[in-house]
Amino acid sequence: MQIIEDAFNNRSLLNDSQTQQAIRDTIARLDAGSLRVAQPDANGWKVNNWVKQAVIMYFQICEMKTMHAGMLEFYDKMEIKTGYADKGIRVVPHAVARYGAYIAKGAILMPSYVNIGAYVDSGTMVDTWATVGSCAQIGKHVHLSGGVGIGGVLEPVQAAPVIIEDGCFIGSRCIVVEGVHVGTEAVLGANVVLTMSTKIIDVTGAQPVETKGYVPPRSVVIPGSYTKNFNAGSYQVPCALIIGQRKQSTDTKTSLNDALRDFNVAV
User: Fold this and answer.
1) pLDDT at 6 over 90
2) Which residues of 38-61 are buried (b: 16+ CB within 10 A; e: fewer)?
């Protein structure tokens, strides 16, 4: 870790073979899942900033080169992930994951993209045209529906990655970026957009309760809007509405429609 931090503060050290090997070893551990950019601990989640530093510097020590996957040609600094059969991962053409992304046994990648530093745990489905950005943390048995965009984060180094905890269902065309944290078994309806500045409004009580950046466990969330006054007039601004809690009777493998039906919402 110290070698990585020293090199990040003094990039001339990137010419040193020991520094380069430390960076490559870190990326290899990310790829194997023995190291993560962030992991849960007793206080919530711990972000390992030095690991993100290693990912950033890995780009600097790698050279552009031509790579082939059958008839397909790529020209990049990063290798693509390989060895899926031995790892027990189902990968449908044309899914692509970069070397340095961890995909656990039992995960399924439909035609999709997973970037370096990401962590995708067992039993998770990354559906068609979904993207998992650099360093994003995706839990067990998560469903990222078609066209979902999970944002990546490398810089600033101290910024937290997007975290999607176990059992979540992320509906089609949702966007979750800028380090937003989605709690265990939450359900996001189609087209929910969550950034760190998006209002998340719990409307289940007598008065609305506003938060930002965090969706509580088992929340059912749909797109909404509120009126904001500008110099030119009043306009509708997107927000997210927590309309209820996922019921205990709802199996973790339920469809989005099943989860929303309890609240008479069709999304």
Assistant:
1) yes
2) beeeeeeeebbbbbbbbbbbbeeb
As a whole number of angstroms, the distance between CA 143 and CA 153 comes to: 21
Helix (H) or strand (E) holding 220: strand 219-230
Q: Please choose, from the candidates 235, 225, 183, 168, the residue with its C-alpha nearest in 3D space to the C-alpha of residue 201.
A: 225
Of 103, 156, 95, the residue nearest 131 (C-alpha)? 95
* Number of helical (H) and strand (E) elements in the chain, helices listed first: 5, 26
Name all domains of the chain by residue range, CATH numbers in brackets: 2-63+76-247+255-261 (2.160.10.10)
Q: At what angle do helices 49-61 and 17-32 cross, to 10 degrees?
A: 120
**Is 92's pLDDT higher than 70?**
yes
Residue 192: burial class (beta carbons within 10 Å; 0-12, 13-18, 19+): buried
Note the pTM of the prediction, 2 decimals.
Answer: 0.92
State the alpha helices, DSSP H only, in the chain: 2-9, 17-32, 49-61, 84-87, 256-261
Alpha-carbon distance of 146 to 126, in angstroms, equals 8
